[in-house]
Amino acid sequence: MLPLIFFSNNAHKCAEVQAILGQEVLPYTRLLGRVEVVESAQSFEENAHLKAQALYPFLADKLQDFLVLAEDSGLCVEALGGYPGIYSARFANIKEGAKEIVRGNFMPPSASSSDIENNRKLLACLDILGLLESPACFVCVAALRGRVGGQEVSQSFRGECLGRVVKAPLKPNAFGYDPLFIPKGYHTTIDNIEEKNQISHRFNALKQVQVFLKRACLKLPH
């Protein structure tokens, strides 16, 4: 089987990706030391490719055929002009308020913040705008970089999950913005939905990855 190395140290995310793909996913730190990447791009696609490319040179000398899987994901809230978007993991470190964020008039944050801090920031923004909810969309872009049958590969796949963010109680053990997001067609937040891994933005991106991997494996020598 083609080695799939995942650019993440997040155990929760690794388990989720492995469950969706139905195959072993190796956290990159099992093969390499820590690799720091500044997510300086202006889109999910570009940031995902930045991370995938960052690992490629280190692995190209170690492995013949392999794929690095990297993803960038976030929450785009209509009432906030599509933000936090690519700043979803750093949202709480945006010092400006909701009205400045809507206009894109803020200093991009560099440091990540905790899930609970990001949830508080989102709720505070809804308060400032006088809203109980807003249409929103979870976005995930999965990028692949590596070699298959000796040929270089660079590909990306985008998945979305439409819905709305709502004012709801904070949860200390929350994963991302899940406790504040209700998917389209549902009446409860996504963290309470048993089939989350069959409807999420990550699922929609990774199912495309899964199709690509099946085709790629056919190109490998047997």
TrEMBL record:
Query: Pfam families per the record?
Result: Ham1p_like
InterPro entries the UniProt entry points to: ITPase-like_fam, RdgB/HAM1
What organism is listed for this UniProt entry?
Helicobacter gastrofelis
Any idea what this protein is called?
Non-canonical purine NTP pyrophosphatase
> Which CDD domains does UniProt cross-reference here?
HAM1
Membership in a protein family? Belongs to the HAM1 NTPase family.
| Keywords, alphabetical | Hydrolase, Nucleotide metabolism
